[in-house]
Description:
Helices cover about 50% and strands about 15% of the residues. The protein is built from 23 helices and 18 strands. Helix 20 runs antiparallel to helix 21 (about 615-645). The longest helix is centred in the last third of the chain and has 55 residues, at about 555-605. The model has no long low-confidence stretch (mean pLDDT about 90). The structure holds adenosine-5'-diphosphate and magnesium ion (MG).
Amino acid sequence: MEKVTEYFGSMVFDDRIMKATLSEKVYKSLKRTIDRGTPLDISVANAVAAAMKDWAIEKGATHYTHWFQPMTGVTAEKHDSFISPAPDGRVIMEFSGKELVKGEPDASSFPSGGLRATFEARGYTAWDPTSYAFIKDGTLYIPTAFCSYTGEALDKKVPLLRSMEAINKQALRILKLFGNTSVKSIKTSVGPEQEYFLVDRDMWKQRKDLIMTGRTLFGAMPPKGQEMDDHYFGSIKPRVAEYMADLDRELWKLGILAKTKHNEVAPAQHELAPIYDTTNIAADHNQLTMEVMQKVALRHNLVCLLHEKPFAGVNGSGKHNNWSISTDQGENLLSPGETPSENAQFLLFLAAVIKAVDDYQDLLRLSVATAGNDHRLGANEAPPAVISVFLGDELTAVLDAIEKDKPYGGTAKEKMKLGVDVLPQFSKDTTDRNRTSPFAFTGNKFEFRMLGSSNSISCANIHLNAAVAEVLRQFADKLEKAKDFNKALHDLIRKTIKDHKRIIFNGNGYDDAWIAEAEKRGLMNLKTTADAMPHICDKKNVEMLTSHGIFTEAEIFSRRDIMLENYIKTVNIEAVTMIDMARKEIIPAVAKFAADTASAVSVKKSVSKAACKYETGLVTQLSDLIDEMDSAASALEKAVAEFRTIEVIVEASEFIRDTVLPAMDALRAAADKAETVTAETYWPFPAYDKLLFGV
Length: 695
Ligand code: ADP
Ligand code: MG
């Protein structure tokens, strides 16, 4: 067996390869572009392209592609081969700097929310040299950003990079105030924990709902679900273990730091966590991880489900976005320090995050809003739809002491003086384990737990970075003008705690009492995508996002439309699939069972005087359920037909929420009832017990 240390990153054009294949001058120039964003000149691009091509061909690649992340949520690619005709009928392999730097995919069918219509018909992709190129399936992948010709972002990477730049700029201002002038840049880092389900592929093939929508639209609960809690961290079954080993190997070859793997709460549910990385790289790698997960599953005759709620009644899948801010010198700004000054700096950044989450609850909520994730949030298995911050009791007590100007802790007599006192040591354990909080401080980072398993992590991090950048800007504006820095700092932190402590909640987020309490505190409860998404266009959000150059106003409106369109299209496909399954599979199956039972009655009655009470009762029950399913399907058909006549997108999304989804629930309820009284051999597709316990 090859050693991991030998094949790790073997498919990546990383720093090692750059150093080995580029001249010193070209390497240095490229490094400057990567580290500092200085423009790349074409001779350097040509040299890099040539080296990349030679390396890729050596590894068996024949094609290259500009890989990008349009707003569909999945990545897109168009492959071009390296071949170029030579005069004598042969081909030579070519790849120029121009082809590396810029691509022009025929992008007219990617969602642009009207942007391209307003501006320019075509978009182009631009090489993102901060994310390494890699080889997958015989193709050289070049990570790129996707823009319109007038510079509007048509993807998720451009605004993510802009948000990282915004927080960099503002955090540097703050660090300077603390006398820290040697830091050149700050970066946000993310470690996304990825949950997923594995089901047997032969069973998957028999379910139109899984094929068309990624989730089951019907299915009664099996006798055993997740109530035994015997799956979480349980021993991994051999077939799954083989899958995970294969997956690790593929990810490692791509330079992805896959680190932790284990079973999750629900049967057939698992998790994979990489070691954290710069947000931009983490986003690319998470996108790639999701893709590889699905591909490797097929080799094991499995299907990897990334949907947020593949099965009703058992836990869905999320993605925990572990987020921190650190300097180029490796200092984590969310880590409590050892000196009074470091502590004061930590508390300022902590206060900034608290205020950012409170001021921009709506942006954080909508950054994770999708039709799939709506099934999880607030369903007592994932954080509620209300955003709050968990700090743990000890840190909360520190903030409380600062706010009220009183001594911290039982024995202390002195008040906490920022910039003078050292923070009390608080143990990591107490800040660690509240799994019900949407946004939890975990010792030296925040864990944003609301993301859905299929979400791109870009959206959440764009808004998180933007919100924190905005608060840091407000803080820096104030502190830069202060005559007495320490006093101003103390007052600012105190005021921030006072004004924003409503967002801090350390209790059980699954408790209904919290939702009532949150309402009293004036926190937002945006239950669905239809409720959340329009808030991106609220004046305060538009002003904030445009002022940091993260989005233009046109981009914001286009994004709202794209996300809402995604929501309504997703639900519409689900509704149509349900009708199809009900009419063509479920109702005929139940009817056949009823008919067979009825003919059994006549046969029985012809030879005996049996009353056939059981059979007669069953046939009546089945017939009633068939009628119920039929009318529920008709109601859903009517809702879908009406939905199609609504042209205004916000209205359409509200109609989906208020009419289509409830009609789907009604049809499902009738069908699930029918499933519980229909003989297993008649049921037209594998039921929950087979799917959940079949691997
Ligand atoms: P748990 O399930 O206990 O929350 P995991 O080990 O599954 O923890 O995942 C924790 C994630 O947080 C990992 O991806 C890890 O690399 C990441 N992480 C650790 N430290 C930081 C940090 N300073 N900034 C960002 N992410 C971090
Ligand atoms: Mg984990």
